[in-house]
UniProtKB/TrEMBL annotation, chain B:
Keyword check for Transmembrane helix: yes
The protein's name in its UniProt record: Polar amino acid ABC transporter permease
Keyword S-adenosyl-L-methionine attributed: no
Species for this entry: Thalassospira tepidiphila MCCC 1A03514
Biological classification of the source: Bacteria, Pseudomonadati, Pseudomonadota, Alphaproteobacteria, Rhodospirillales
Any one of the GO BP annotations: amino acid transport
Amino acid sequence: MSEFSLWDIVYNLLLAARWTVLLSLTAFVLGGLVGLLLLMVRTAGNPWVIRLVRGYVELFQGTPLLMQLFIVFFGLPLIGLDVSPWVAATLGLTLFTSAFLTEIWRGCVESIGKGQWEASASLGMNFTQQMRYIVLPQALRIAVPPTVGFSVQVVKGTAVASIIGFVELTKAGTMITNATYEPFTVYGCVAVMYFLICYPLSLFARHLEGKFRHVAR
Amino acid sequence: MAYKFDFGAIVPHWQLLFDGVILTTELTVIGAVVGVGLGIMGAWARASRAPVISQIVGVYVELIRNTPFLVQLFFIFFGLPALGVKLTEFQAAVLAMIVNLGAYSTEIIRAGILAIPQGQIEAAQSLAMNRVQIFRYVVILPALKKIWPALSSQIVIVMLGSSVCSQIAAEELTFGANYIQALNFRAFEVYFVVTGLYLVMSILLRMGLKVLGNFLFERRRHV
């Protein structure tokens, strides 16, 4: 039986926090890519594609993240894929992130005036060119603040991955609590660490909001 | 694939899911009513710019908004007993939801209050209304009306977030699902059905909040 000092607790939590950061980054980047793809097919697409994407967004925004992770974690083995908690968490969070980001970005693209589309079409641009040269550069500026803001939700979402057994910050907190019987200290430290990751992101998002306000209006 | 889906295996345990839906609903209703109440008070404190209290509320809002709900729940359920505050699973779950929604709704409602034109408040002052009267009769309803869609979304998010309360053994819907899959090992089927239940509940909740919003705000327009 070894004693845990406060430093031991903090040190072990910091080691686990690396996984929180890694999972957040992976889910955010992959989710962003999938979200961008969905945005493209939705903006270009026929009514059926639009309906499909809308259903996808509704599904992920209308169900708990925990259920999404459970379905990936328990569902994929049924079709013969053996998934580790890491793969299940990454996949689940990627889908979750893509649904939210595509919805955020849709609003940004729709806020670009119809005249911009028409003017670029009258110059003979096709859809890809319109997107690439006219719409996305403008939409991007509006999209940055809410996107950074949503990254905080992704970081917090990774805590749920602890429930399917992925050892990140929250799971490490539970394990250390079971060893030390000091839940107050341990969960306090866990909360502080999440705060230290998320608060700078929140501040950055707010800063960007102030900076880009004149663009949006 | 050899796996045969058997959704029928859930049917004998429907009572567990039914109880779970009831408890999730209870959690959500109490959490939403008290949480939004807390948010209204917090927003008032923030918007009034009373020096100390406004800052305390600001710290509370940032702390809650930048930490995961699951950690808040664990801190309340496992951590607080160290300070002598012992809570049942249900109490801890409700408290966590109130504290969480309170912070988010403070920020949302504050935006609504700040959007009230200054002329409205000056007009009320010129009618010799005191600060409480101004807040009660002039500020809060139009402010809530402005941000009702955002507040509704946040309440839905809190309802969905309550699924992690199963982790402290609060017997809500996800707890029921975990229990059933431990009985019949039909994890995928159970979670699939429960995901559907959550989807229906979130759609119903959104509709209900819309109706409530119409009732609260539209009716008074012609008074």
